[in-house]
Amino acid sequence: MNATPVRQHRPEAESETHSISLLLNGKQVQLTVEPWTTLLDLLREHLNLTGTKKGCDHGQCGACTVLVNGTRINACLSLAVMQDGAEITTIEGLANGDQLHPMQAAFVEQDAFQCGYCTPGQICSAIGMIKEGKAKTRDEIREQMSGNLCRCGAYTNILAAIEQAMPACQGESRE
Amino acid sequence: MTIHLEKAVSRVDGPLKVTGRALYAGEFGTADLCTGYVVNSSIAKGRILRIDTTEALKVVGVLDVLTHENRPAVASYNESYTDMDAADGKHFRPLYNDRILYSMQPVALVVAESFEAARYAASLVRVDYESEPPQADLYAQRSEAHKAPTELPPDRGDAEEAWTQAPVKVEAEYHSAAEFHNPMEMHASTVIYSTDGKLTIHDKTQGVQNSAQFISNIFGLPDGDVRVVTPFVGGAFGSGLRPQYQLVLATMAALKLKRSVRVVLSREQMFSFGHRPETLQHLKLACDQDGKLVSTIHEVMGETSSFEDFTEMVVVWSASLYQCPNVRLKYDLVPLDLYTPLDMRAPGAVLGVYALESAMDELSYAAGIDPLELRIRNFTATDPASGNNPYSSKELLECYRQGAERFGWNKRSPQPRSMKEGRQLIGYGMATGVWEAMQNPASAKAVITIDGSVVVSSATADIGTGTYTVMTQIAAECFGLPLEKVTFKLGDSTLPKAPLEGGSFTVSSVGSAVKQACEALQQQLLDQAKQDDQSPFKNFELTDVIFENGTMRIKASPQECIEITELLKQGGSPSMEALASASPKEERDNYTTATHSAVFVEVRVDEDFGTVQISRMVSAIAAGRILSLKPGRNQILGGMVWGIGMALQEEGMLDKKLARWMNHNIAEYHYPVNADIHDLDVIFVKEHDEIVNPLGAKGIGEIGIVGVAAAIANAIYHATGKRIRDLPITLDKVFQS
């Protein structure tokens, strides 16, 4: 797989597209992407999955956090072609029908957001962090969630929501 | 007793936000949508000589490059560019002519079939400029200052003489850096072009009607041809109070190409419009031996642009917060070659109160009086700035008492640098906070339908503040309905008129209108019942009846009850609606209405590294009734986090030679992350108020931040014995001073 965005692959040149397949939110999809399209733009601009947010496009804010093979990454820092064959879960893929994922339910209950723009990234990041298994204390959660900015400043409630959902999420990742 | 109000209900829009289904301005689409990408000026002052778009136009997928030379016609009168939050002066007009007024001014818009093509082509637009040296140094330009065009409270007594004669006095200068709003959602506008030429615009704004009117005025479009629809706003904090340039550019492109266009600013471009102004403040305070203030002199010098005069409520607080017989205020502006500053959360108050409350702390040490005690001794139950009007309510003393108790202020050792744990210097600091409790005229419509559900609407916004939730609660309370039976609609310019969503006046203004609309609808239902001569309601007024779970009952004899659906059937219509407008009561004019707070902070300053940690903060808030506890507490917590950012981190760094913001990204413009936030505690002090509005609720969007920066700076002084009068207090300053 050629994943390097080389200079001659500019839009004015004959577009060299790539065929990739993804297991996206539980569904196998086959896509044709241009080499310069980021995973974030693929989701938002091409697949209409706008739940994943763009807050900086530079890997500075975490609003675009998605789960790739269960690991949290910034979708803006990955080209779509690099994810050929990957299993990708976005905020749209967490709930089971009307049944919210425990982390989503905890965010609502603890009022862990205001404007909601960083929220999908916070939720995906929290799920990924719990799976990593390194955060045991409140300070460790705070530290390991610090890649996800919240300008509304809802950090106190984000922490409370993660603590609330942690046991259910740990059970889930053991299954 | 209430069923919904003053309760901790979960946000009604929460499920949409946690599942990614809430749609923001840049997320609406349509089949013919194309994307615009902005090209910004690389110089700060001068003119455009030539724009070469040849290479950009060659990029596959590029449709057009708009510049001042080929844009559609726009209004030429300055008045057409005014808006509901406009500063005085000659308003900025995007792509109007060849003049460059500030660095990163938009000079072209590349429109293409895809975002990537537009962004790439934007890098190929070549602009030649004739450059003039810009002025961007507030200190260097001090001599160019002029009086701010705003009314200040009258001076009292002879403040200079009183200061000279006083036994205890302080004098200090405080500086604070420019700050940028940086909402998580970048500014975006999606203009949906309809074949009949009408526009539906999804704009990131705190006022859909403001944006709609602005676009109608600039492009000479009939009001009915422009509709702005923005159900969700990803934070704004003031950045959406004025229509920003992406709205104008997207509309230009849509009109020119007769296609739907979306323009989303990049994070860098989020630093290319309004910001909290860099400000310099000079304070002189004096008191007698008992700590009673005898003189307050507060002089402010704020930054503005070369084309508008931006003013904010920065010095007025020094005339009203404490009883003081001699007061002199001064407020000047220094024009710089930067974009006009813009209201940002608690505009003016955060700055003015920072300086005042820092100086009060300095005075407390000079007088040898505990900082909290000094404030209590100077408390005033009336407002000296308005000829000693009473306050509609003011539980500030209770904020001091409850906040101090929760915080453990009595454990404070008075001497600076006297509390320590290992290598951590511990400091306690406090400050008072204040913000106006305003009400603006607003309208709302309430509709009840045959299935018993109620829909209430008004053209306000929810920028994360909880508007959807609190308005739903107010309407559900009126009708005695479960929240699920009530829907509140906002963010559509065709809805009943609402003011901008800002200034902490949304609950007060729109909430009052919602209540009145519901009551008007109830009156219609009662009138409908009275149509029947046999009705048990015949001799009763609205105050005699209650609404409960889809029924209307007589309070005194609750067995007399009628189903609302029955009333609608009798009226022969599947629904009934009422429109109401709420305005501030005249009675308010005899009072000053304000929210207050007492903020207590514990800092830990590392002796070796100079790092400052806010280990604890308690904020006691008096803001009337808190109608929605979860979003309410969250608003205050957010304000406290903003105060931490202002005190320790946030700083727009300007290259003064280039007049260009250099840290224009959120890796280098710091604001708090989760690890910066520790134990934050909010107390809502009970405050009864029958004057402020029919709901008794004052609004809490701003009060949470006011006072926080001063409390932190004061705590750092208490921890270290170093008085740092320059925000943000970064570790280099902790070491240096």
Automatic annotation (TrEMBL), chain A:
One Pfam family named in its UniProt record: Fer2_2
Molecular functions per Gene Ontology: 2 iron, 2 sulfur cluster binding; metal ion binding; oxidoreductase activity, acting on the aldehyde or oxo group of donors
Keyword Iron-sulfur part of the UniProt annotation: yes
Residues in 2Fe-2S ferredoxin-type domain copies: 18-94
Nucleotide-binding as UniProt keyword: no
Keywords: 2Fe-2S, Iron, Iron-sulfur, Metal-binding, Oxidoreductase
Record PANTHER family: OXIDOREDUCTASE WITH IRON-SULFUR SUBUNIT (PTHR45331:SF2), OXIDOREDUCTASE, IRON-SULPHUR BINDING SUBUNIT-RELATED-RELATED (PTHR45331)
Protein name: Xanthine dehydrogenase YagT iron-sulfur-binding subunit
From TrEMBL, chain B:
MF-aspect GO terms: iron ion binding; oxidoreductase activity
Residues that span the membrane, as ranges: none
Start and end residues of each Aldehyde oxidase/xanthine dehydrogenase a/b hammerhead domain: 19-133
Cited Pfam families: Ald_Xan_dh_C, MoCoBD_1, MoCoBD_2
Name this polypeptide is given: Xanthine dehydrogenase YagR molybdenum-binding subunit
Annotated source species: Pseudomonas duriflava
